[in-house]
Amino acid sequence: MGHTGVHRWRVPAILFAILLGVAGCTGSHAASRTAAPHTGPVPAAKPTSAAPTANPATDAPCQFKLHIDALPTWARQGFGPPFNGFPYVLSSGGDIVGVLFGTLVAPPPSGDEGANKVVWVAKDPSAGELTVDAHLVGTAQKAEIGDISFGPSHDDVPTPGCWRLTLHWLGPTETVDVVYVSQR
Fold first, then answer.
1. Quick one: which of 84, 166, 75 has its CA closest to 119?
2. What is the pLDDT of residue 20?
3. From residue 95, how far is each of 116, 126, 148, 169 by CA, in Å?
4. pLDDT value of residue 126
């Protein structure tokens, strides 16, 4: 991505941060330059008929943290400098980065409205395939994201809220919380 591509992502990164504030997230920590964990209410969702992946009574609260600092050095391949124009999330073990291209919305956009694009990057370049399970934090609702390759993917969920993505790959299983906002 050239110099022009970097400027194209600065405005969506700023808009994404503003939308997260509207969605109930709190301010940022100056030292880490990450957004604070999502602490607002999670919209109620109807449980699916499938077996639950989480126990709402014991589910950990949303741990969403949007990083707006520079991408880790191991996650920069394919991105042009400066490396701080890309909002991203970091997995629980710190081995996988999900670069968010715009605001993630639920239900997913259709047709020409865009897509929920995430670029997944593994610290280990031989990481293989990635399988993603998702559940809405605090509920039994889950979504099928399935098998995706590291790199660009479309990660859609049916309802807005904080979704815990469980990442299965050649390394240890990791999780990452991602907030989807409501389509207007």
1. 75
2. 39
3. 22, 12, 17, 11
4. 87
Tokens at 23, concatenated: 């969605």
Confidence of residue 83 (pLDDT cuts 50, 70, 90): confident
Tell me the pairing of strands 105-106 and 129-136.
unpaired
Distance CA 19, CA 29 (A): 17
Burial code (b: 16+ CB inside 10 Å, e: under 16) for 29-58 equals eeeeebbeebebebbebeebeeeebbeeee
H/E stretch holding 9 reads helix 3-22
**How far is Cα 88 from Cα 34, in angstroms, rounded to an integer?**
9
Q: Evaluate whether 86 touches 79 at the Cβ level (below 8 Å).
A: yes
pTM of the model: 0.69
Distance CA 135, CA 117 (A): 18
Number of H helices, E strands in the chain: 1, 11
Q: Which pair of structure tokens corresponds to residue 151?
A: 């790199």
Give the separation between CA 50 and CA 177, rounded to whole angstroms: 21
CA distance 122 to 109: 27
Please name the residues in contact with 183: beta carbons below 8 A apart, sequence gap of 6 or more: 105, 106, 107, 109
Q: SS3 of 139, please?
A: coil
* Greater model confidence, 24 or 90: 90
